[in-house]
Amino acid sequence: MVDCWSVVCARCAKRRSERRDILTELYETELKYGRDLRIVVEEFYRPMLVAGLLSSDQLAGIFLNAEELIQVTYQTTTMRFPTGKKVQKVFESKSSEQCMVRRLRNSGRPS
Q: N or C: which end of the chain has fewer CB within 10 A?
């Protein structure tokens, strides 16, 4: 006989794992995007500004909102949840899913 509660937990764990993978991908993409923006500003925008190759207005048109985007990316990747836990720490914690499944299984539901 198949234990219905374990099947449900396995399905929930799989879906939770898939959601976690998607969120991790989004988080990592945001980190890489911020890094790439900083590289663009440091390697292209600032040297072009210092060298006077283009006017400030021309550079502002080409590198539209780069500094603001860097700030938003930084805030997004370093924010904290209401519990005070950093977003980064949530993604580094690999055992949180397993703990949730264990808690569900040990919560007095029939096994």
A: N
